[in-house]
Amino acid sequence: MCGNESVHNHKSTSMAHSSRVPLNRVNIRDEFWSYYINLVRDVVIPYQWDALNDRVNSAEPSGAVRNFRIAAGLEQGEFYGMVFQDSDVAKWLEAVAYMLESDPDPALEEIADGMIDIIAMAQQEDGYLNTYFTVKEPGQRWTNLAECHELYCAGHMIEAGVAYYRATGKRKLLDVVSRFADYIDSVFGTEPGKLAGYDGHQEIELALVKLYQATGNERYLRLSRYFVDQRGQKPSFFAHEHKERGGKSHWPDGYAALNLEYSQSHLPVREQEKAIGHAVRLLYMLTGMADVAAETGDESLLAACRRLWDNIVNRQMYITGGVGSMPQGEAFSFDYDLPNDTVYAETCASIGLIFFAQRMLRISPEAQFADVMERALYNTVVGGMSRDGKHFFYVNPLEVDPKACGGGNRKYDHVKPVRQEWFGCACCPPNVARLLASLGEYIYTVQGDSIYTHLYIGGEAKLEVGGQQVGIKQTSHYPWDGRISLEVTPEQAGSAFALAVRIPGWCKQAVLTVNGAAYPLDAGTVVNGYAVIERSWQPGDLVELNLDMPVLRMHSHPLVRANAGKVALQRGPLVYCLEQADNGPNLHEIMLPREVQLEAGREDLLGDVVTVRAEVLRLRESDWNGELYSDKPTPEAKRETVKFIPYYAWANRGEGEMTVWVREQ
Length: 665
Prior knowledge:
By secondary structure, the chain is an alpha+beta fold. Helices cover 34% and strands 18% of the residues. Among the domains are: 444-547, Maltose phosphorylase, domain 3; 551-664, no CATH class. Helix 3 runs parallel beside helix 6 (150-168), helix 6 runs parallel beside helix 8 (204-215) and helix 12 runs antiparallel to helix 13. It is globular and about 75 Å long.
C-alpha cells in the first residue's frame, strides 16, 4: 500500500481546493480577537510552558517536559502522566510556531529551539519517538494501538514539526518527524511482514497530509490514506490485538480496546452513516478524511464527510457549537440527545469541528461550513478559556447549578462551575492556544480567481490571486455590530477577480455596497451563501457589508427533549446566557414571555460586551408555602428585569448558576 502505488487510484486528479494562507500574510487587528491573540502570546504560552515544566504550584503537575529529558538521557527518573503526555508539548510547540510565523520573537524561539533539541535527543536510532514507551514500557511498541496513543502523539509532533519549519525555516524538528514518519511507514501496511493496524485516537491522518504538503513526499500521503482506508476493516484489528495481549488493557475498564464504535472502528469510514463514539476522535478522523479526499480526488471519502457533517450539525450539535453530549466515552450519543446540564461538549471536540469545517471550506466554499466554524469559535472555543488566560474548561455545559457539581450526584462529576488551572489530561488548554495562534488561517481562502471571506475579523491580508498580490484591509466591530468594510488593493489596477463575502445563516437582512453603490443580493449574485462580486478592481475599492443583527429567539427541534418549551437568545454569532452574578440564584424560576422586548446594548462588563435585557416573569421560592407538593394554584409570577450575557463570557466573575435555555411563556 505504501510503496509505489499511486495515491490517485480513486480519481486521476486532486479536487479543486484552496491551499493554506500563510500566517505572515495575515495581520489581525481586531477589537474582539486581538485581545485573545495577545493573551495567547503574552500569557497563555508562557503559562503553559511553566505548567509543562511543573512550575505552577497550584495546578496539577504535567511531567511532560521532564519525560522528554528522561528519554533523552538528561535526567534520571520515571515517566509521569498519561500515556499521551507527549502531545501536550507538541501542541505547545505548534502554538509557538504559529505565533513566530505571525510575529517573530527571538526569545520565544530560543526556548522552543531548546525543547526541540531535547526532543531530537529523545528520538531512538530507528526514528521512533515516544517517551512513554521509551521510558516506561520499552519493548512494548505498537502492542496496544487501540488505547495507547502512539500514533496520536506522533501526529501532534508531526504537526508541530511542519508548523515550526514554516515559521522559522529551521528543519531540525521537521527532520525528526520525517524520520519518525518513515519509520512508521516501515511498520504499517498490508504487505507481508507489516502491521495491518491503525490508530485508536485519530490524528496521524491529518498530520501526514500536512507533512506531505510541506515536503512534497507522496509517501506520507499514501500512508495517511492507508490509515483512513484500513480503519474498520474486518476482521477487527483491535479485537485481534486485544487477543494477542491476552486481554490485557492499559485502562482499567478496557473500554477503548473492546468498543469499536468508540474509536469509529466498527465500519470502514465510507460506510459510516452517523456520528458515534469519542467526539474528538471522530472530528480528527473527518478532518483527515477531507484532507485525503482533497489531495487524491476521492469522491467517496468526500461523500462520507458530507454525510457525517449533516448528522453532526443537524442532529447532534449544541447551539453553542459544542459536540459530544455524553460523558461516558466523551462521546456522541444518539440523534437529538442534547441534555444541557450533563452535557460533555469537550473544548477539543469543538476545535476538531472547526478543523473539519475549515477543510470542507477549502474543498467547497459553502457558507454552511463557515457558519458552524464561526458558531463553535465564538461560543465554545473562546469560552473554554478565561479572560486571564490561566483557567480552562474541559467540559462546556449549557446549564450549571454549583450545588449539583460535586454534591453527591455522580452524574455531574465531570461538570465544573468554574474554569480549572490545569488538568491531568491537559489536551484542551494547548489546543485552544494553537487554534487561536493560527486564527489568521481561517479568515480567507483563495480558490481559482476568487477570494472568499469566511470570518469577519479585522486586519490586513496579502493574498495571491491569479499570480498577483491582492491586499485586503478588513474593518469592523464584529461581533458587536454587523457593519464590515473591506478595502481591496490589487497589485495591478484593473485586475479581474471575484471577492466573495459570506452572508451568515443567522442574518435575515443584509445590504452590500461597492464604492457606495448598492450591489444586488439575489440568486444571481449569492452562491452557496456567499455574495460574489466580480469586477475589475482598482486600488482602494471599498466593499461595505451591513448585516442586520437583531436578538433572535432560537428554538430547538421538537425531538430535543431537554429544550421543550424553552428558548435561547442569539445575536449575531453569539449565543447568550443568564448568569447568577447578574440575576441571582434559581435561574430555572425565570420565564421569558414570547412577546417581550429584547434590548441589546453595549456595557462596560467582561471586556465591554453587548448584553441583552428583558422583562421576565419569575416564580419565587419565598412565595411557596413550604410544602414539597401542593394542589393549590401556583403563586403569581413576579415581573423583573434580567440581563443576558454572551455565553463565552460566563464564569469570569466567580462561581454561580448559569443557563442558556430559558422557559418561554
